[in-house]
Specification:
The structure is a single chain. With 388 residues, this protein is of the alpha/beta class. The strands form two sheets. It has a nine-stranded mixed beta sheet. α6 packs across α9.
């Protein structure tokens, strides 16, 4: 059991969007320095480090580049949910006294690498293990999400117009974020008339491709008074891995967030209706819709009706979702889960500018949730955060 409370005390993004003259290590370092400066905590107190997605030995190589010599490390890699899972592990380690302050850092030049020919747009996850039974059929990552979306449409009557609403509202939120990559308004017709990618998805149903990095610093409660920022507390976390191959996924209409979310809410002692905003992994529009259901914001099968009424907007929405514009409009450099935590903390601190969410009483939000999804709905990590 946790014996110390744990807070997020520093967050930051690196340069994001179109960053042609940088390496992933540069973006890691830029985000890390900014997060440490944001916290104002003595660098010498950072004794834990977590990273994934770069190099051969991610936490060792990146920590060395940053000049850190941690005594606690984590390199858990479960796709987009990596960072919510890492935050859970870090919070447990700090609470148990195995670390005092843990830095989570990520950086990727996915867009720049593609432009320079250093990688391809259809980067393979491999052909070994369970994947060997799917690869021969050309079962791409996008196709897997499209299949799941189609199953939801068949079973629950969800429409492609409702899925498009997720992209439209994400763009409306991005319009309030000066750092978002795409800010021009779009309509449902714009989404539906776009180039097809994997039926029912068109281009605007899919996340943008960007460069960028992020960093989050967690610390034990006794160090909060030494920080320059107000603490945002980790109240509860949950994680879940559901399957590896699509053939082993019991129900395409239920994501692993159904388990990670339940655990996080139970451990935090709060309920979905108490949450003021949600940051949800949105590599594709369907991810937002089904995660809203699985986190308990609406019943199974009602996600389509829930999103079509403008509820996800910062301006006038009942439950603002992906307040920075999300992966669909703001930025998506790869494993975007860390960006969800950065935005959630900024919202709870009241630092979100024109996109600032307000609670129902007009005050700053008190509770937020960040829920990341990895692979092809293979894994999920959910974190409940609160201020005060």
């Amino acid at each position: 059991m946790r014996t110390r409370r744990v807070a997020v005390v520093g967050v930051s993004l690196s340069a994001c969007g179109r960053v042609d003259q940088a390496t992933p290590y540069t973006l890691h370092a830029q985000a890390a320095r900014r997060a440490l400066a944001d916290a104002g905590l003595d660098r010498g107190l950072v004794d834990g480090f977590a990273s994934a997605g770069t190099g051969t030995l991610a936490p060792a190589e990146v920590a060395d580049y940053l000049g850190l010599r941690p005594t606690w490390v984590d390199s858990t890699s479960v796709g987009g949910s990596t960072w919510e899972v890492m935050a859970a592990h870090a919070a447990d380690a700090i609470a148990a006294g195995h670390a005092n302050a843990v830095l989570l850092a990520y950086g990727s030049t996915a867009r720049a690498d593609l432009r320079a020919g250093r990688r391809t747009g259809t980067l393979s996850f491999g052909t070994r293990g369970p994947l060997q039974f799917e690869v021969p059929y050309g079962h791409t990552l996008i196709a897997k999400y499209a299949m799941a979306a189609r199953r939801h449409m068949i079973e629950h009557g969800t429409t492609v117009e409702q899925l498009a609403q997720v992209a439209v509202q994400a763009r409306a939120n991005a319009a309030l974020n000066p750092e978002a990559m795409f800010r021009d308004p779009i309509t449902v017709d714009d989404v539906l008339s776009g180039p097809p990618v994997a039926e029912p998805f068109t281009k605007l149903h899919c996340c943008v491709r960007s460069d960028g990095g992020a960093a989050v610093l967690l610390a034990a409660e006794e160090f909060v008074r030494d920080c320059r920022t107000a603490p945002v507390w980790i109240l509860g976390t949950g994680e879940h891995v559901s399957h590896a191959a699509m053939s082993q996924w019991t129900d395409f209409t239920v994501s692993p967030a159904a388990v990670s979310g339940r655990l996080a809410f139970e451990r935090a002692g709060v309920r979905p209706h108490e949450i003021d905003f949600a940051e949800i992994y949105d590599a594709f529009t369907y991810m937002t819709l089904v995660t809203l259901e699985d986190l308990g914001f609406c019943a199974k099968g009602e996600g389509g009706a829930f999103v079509e009424k403008g509820r996800l907007r910062v301006e006038g929405g009942d439950l603002p979702v992906n307040t920075d514009g999300g992966g669909l409009s703001a930025q998506h450099p790869g494993m975007r889960g860390l960006f969800l935590l950065v935005e959630a903390v900024r919202q709870l601190r009241g630092e979100a500018g024109a996109r600032q969410v307000r609670a129902r009483d007009g005050e700053l939000p008190r509770l937020g949730v960040a829920s990341g999804t990895g692979g092809w709905f293979c894994s999920s990590g959910t974190v409940i955060l609160g201020r005060g």
